[in-house]
Amino acid sequence: MKKDLHIIYYISALTRFSILPMMLSGVALFYNFSEIELYGKMAIIALVILATTSLVISLTKEYKDTKLQRNDDAIIVTLTWLLTILLSSIPYMLFQNLTFTQSFFESTSGWTTTGLSVLNVANAPLVIILYRSLTQFFGGVGIVLVALSFIVKSPGLRLYTQEGHNDQLMPNLNQSARLIFKIYIGYVAFGILGYVFLGMNSFDAINIAMAALSTGGFAPQAKSIIHYNSFPIELFTMILMVLGATNFATHLLLLNRRFIAFLKTSEFKIFACASLLISSIIYFNSTSSIGISLRIIVFEVISAITTTGFTVTSGYSQWRPIWVVLLVILMVIGGGSGSTAGGIKQSRIAIASKSIFMYFKRLTLPKQIIKNSVYHHNNGEVTTIDKNLSFDSLIYIVIYLTALGIGTLIFALHDYSVVDSLFEFASSLGTVGTSTGIISMTTPNVLMWTSILGMLFGRLEIMVIVAGTVSIIKRFQELR
Question: Which terminus of the chain has fewer Cβ atoms in its 10 Å neighbourhood, N or C?
Fold first, then answer.
């Protein structure tokens, strides 16, 4: 047991940051001060969590410098996220009368930046609405990165990478985390000001900006972005969604005005080609009888590939099934590596597609004229795609699609159509949040937990959770 106390230390040190959404939700009091009692109860919960984690930290701090063993990082990240989600579900149970499953679902959807919801926002207090938006804000960059942004001593590069970050922008890990957080906050501030300028009330602007940049999709209005019926707001939202789904290293290219290097990145090419191709197919396949405007098509396509989940359509019942499947393809592709978006990630799609293309070239062309494929990184560097890089990308894609198939089957076994089941679970696994209506207050618990697993797999990536879970089971067996 002693050899695992450093794991408990790290979990406690990271989990204490779960109180930030609870504490900051008090900003909603500026809009409705009558909710002061509710916020007081939220603050008490936060203080209890802080006191408990601080006590555990003080009892285990002598083990904090213990070297991480194999899969310790996966255990720490997996348990930190699970514990954070569990603690963050308490306000939903106490103040919104949601069941444990519904509360855990809502909390998972927030922290994983998915956006699927069972909460009735029309009747929810502003404190709760802002609280769940804040879970998406912090969940977007990740618990480990938030911790690195506030503390001086790093809990280790391995924790940082296990959470899905591959964007160390500065030589020092903590400096890199702070720079990413500054960029993130800067974009959110830009988003809030932009929405207010376009006529949105400031409370909605705060929530929508955080949801767009975190590619989360929670909206303070039940009808999502369609509620505002404003093309400028939709256009601005698309810009924010794309920024949120872009790797933070790529942001440095943009901020440093290295536009040519940005256009050469493999992820941008995948994003541009996939978005343009599928938008064109849907638009030119549309007829006057079931026509969908180009404005709606482009927004839904951008929302899908950035895995944000905002919508400007009243439902997908008027969409042809093939169009829905095309949106699923975009959800599966997902956003940039190391961004707030989910999905397989554009980097893996780029590497896999180039690897497959190279394979066929080797079958059909003379060896001496074949050139190695290269991958253009988000920082402007170029890497030759070797067998290891190809294998890692292809094997992850196979695992991801297998999980997608299993989840779809579970939904379909509950008498939902295959297309609706595919769309719904792809939305969970890709941390998208768009729904065909299957997820609601009356959804069976088995489907809720299937979606919860999908959201966790999508946010932390499947192998991290598998490695963490297997290692946890082995540790418990060793204690017996």
Answer: C
Unique residue bearing structure tokens 């609280």:
131
Helix axes 387-412, 445-460, angle to 10 degrees: 170
**Total number of residues shown for the chain:** 480
- Hey, what are 399's tokens? 């695992």
Beta strands (DSSP E) in 169-307 are: none
Q: How many helices (H) and strands (E) does the chain have?
A: 22, 2
Tokens of 364: 């059909």
Q: Are 110 and 139 in contact (CB under 8 A)?
A: yes
As given in the structure block, the two tokens for residue 70 are 């194999």
Q: How far is CA 297 from the centre of its chain?
A: 22
The pLDDT tens digits for 51-75 are: 999 999 999 888 777 777 777 788 8
Choose among 240, 233, 238, 188: nearest CA to 210. Answer: 188
Q: What is the pTM of this model?
A: 0.91
Closest to 311 measured CA to CA, from 226, 387, 250, 246: 226
β partners of residue 383: 375
Taking CA atoms, 334 is separated from 166, 250, 268, 270, in Å, by: 16, 16, 12, 10
Q: For residue 466, what are the CA distances in angstroms to 93, 101, 221, 290, 457?
A: 28, 22, 36, 44, 9
Whether the Cβ atoms of residue 330 and residue 274 lie closer than 8 Å to each other: yes
Say how far apart CA 257 and CA 250 lie, in whole Å: 11
CB 469 within 8 A of CB 456: no
DSSP state of 216: -
DSSP state of 308: -
Contact by Cβ (8 Å): 449, 126: no
Using CA atoms, how far apart are residues 326 and 335, in angstroms rounded to an integer? Answer: 16
Written as six digits, the tokens of 442 are 């009356």
* Beta-ladder partners of 376: 382
Tokens of 227: 């509620």
**Residues with Cβ within 8 Å of residue 239, at least 6 apart in sequence:** none
Q: pLDDT (tens digit, 9 = 90+) per residue, 168-221?
A: 555 456 677 778 888 889 999 999 999 999 999 999 999 999 999 999 989 999
